[in-house]
Amino acid sequence: MDDTDLIDGVARANSxxxxxxxxxxxxxxxxxSEQAVxxxxxxxxxxxxxxPERER
Length: 56
Known about the structure:
The chain crosses the membrane at residues 28-49. Keywords: Membrane, Transmembrane, Transmembrane helix. By secondary structure, the chain is mainly alpha-helical. The protein has one domain. The chain is built from 1 helix and no strands. The protein has one helix spanning 3-49. It starts with a helix and ends in a 7-residue tail after the last helix. The relative contact order is 0.06.
Protein backbone atom coordinates (compact mmCIF):
# COMPACT_ATOMS: atom_id res chain seq x y z
CA MET A 1 0.00 0.00 0.00
CA ASP A 2 1.59 3.24 -1.11
CA ASP A 3 0.66 6.82 -0.25
CA THR A 4 -1.75 7.14 -3.18
CA ASP A 5 -3.81 4.17 -1.99
CA LEU A 6 -3.89 5.60 1.53
CA ILE A 7 -5.00 9.03 0.28
CA ASP A 8 -7.66 7.45 -1.94
CA GLY A 9 -8.95 5.38 0.97
CA VAL A 10 -9.17 8.39 3.28
CA ALA A 11 -10.89 10.46 0.58
CA ARG A 12 -13.38 7.67 -0.10
CA ALA A 13 -14.15 7.29 3.62
CA ASN A 14 -14.65 11.05 4.00
CA SER A 15 -16.90 11.13 0.95
CA UNK A 16 -19.03 8.27 2.29
CA UNK A 17 -19.28 9.89 5.73
CA UNK A 18 -20.34 13.23 4.22
CA UNK A 19 -22.86 11.43 2.03
CA UNK A 20 -24.38 9.70 5.06
CA UNK A 21 -24.59 13.00 6.96
CA UNK A 22 -26.22 14.67 3.97
CA UNK A 23 -28.73 11.84 3.53
CA UNK A 24 -29.60 12.02 7.22
CA UNK A 25 -29.92 15.79 7.72
CA UNK A 26 -30.67 17.28 4.28
CA UNK A 27 -34.45 16.65 4.40
CA UNK A 28 -34.83 18.60 7.65
CA UNK A 29 -32.67 21.47 6.34
CA UNK A 30 -34.73 21.50 3.14
CA UNK A 31 -37.99 21.64 5.11
CA UNK A 32 -36.65 24.48 7.26
CA SER A 33 -35.51 26.47 4.23
CA GLU A 34 -38.84 25.95 2.45
CA GLN A 35 -40.70 27.16 5.55
CA ALA A 36 -38.40 30.19 5.76
CA VAL A 37 -39.09 31.08 2.13
CA UNK A 38 -42.85 30.73 2.61
CA UNK A 39 -42.72 32.89 5.76
CA UNK A 40 -40.66 35.56 4.01
CA UNK A 41 -43.07 35.70 1.05
CA UNK A 42 -46.10 35.98 3.34
CA UNK A 43 -44.48 38.72 5.45
CA UNK A 44 -43.45 40.63 2.32
CA UNK A 45 -46.99 40.38 1.01
CA UNK A 46 -48.49 41.65 4.25
CA UNK A 47 -45.99 44.49 4.61
CA UNK A 48 -45.80 45.86 1.06
CA UNK A 49 -48.77 44.70 -0.98
CA UNK A 50 -51.58 45.75 1.39
CA UNK A 51 -53.38 48.92 0.31
CA PRO A 52 -52.15 52.12 1.96
CA GLU A 53 -54.27 53.51 4.75
CA ARG A 54 -56.27 56.64 3.96
CA GLU A 55 -55.24 59.93 5.49
CA ARG A 56 -57.84 61.72 7.56
